Amino acid sequence: MPVQHARHANLRTILDQLEKEGISGYEAQAAHLGNVTGHRLEAMDQGGHIDVLFSEHVEWVFHRRRGWMDELHEDDPLEA
User: Fold this and answer.
1) How many Cβ atoms are within 10 Å of 21's Cβ, its own excluded?
2) How far from chain centre, in Å, is Cα 9?
3) How far is residue 1 from each of residues 12, 34, 79, measured CA to CA in Å?
């Protein structure tokens, strides 16, 4: 499983979570995350490269363990 595939799937999960919390649109989501622009966030969500520093930043912001962004979590009941 390529790491980028997992990072894209997990980024989508995070963005969906933000949407459910009322934080919608790339600019608002980027402001909540910090360390990224809305334009860059949109590019990553649409298949652009997600680097390790951004992945670790997302893990920190969302209180995920290190390496969470690099793994698929489809069968994890906590992610449902």
Assistant:
1) 9
2) 8
3) 17, 28, 19
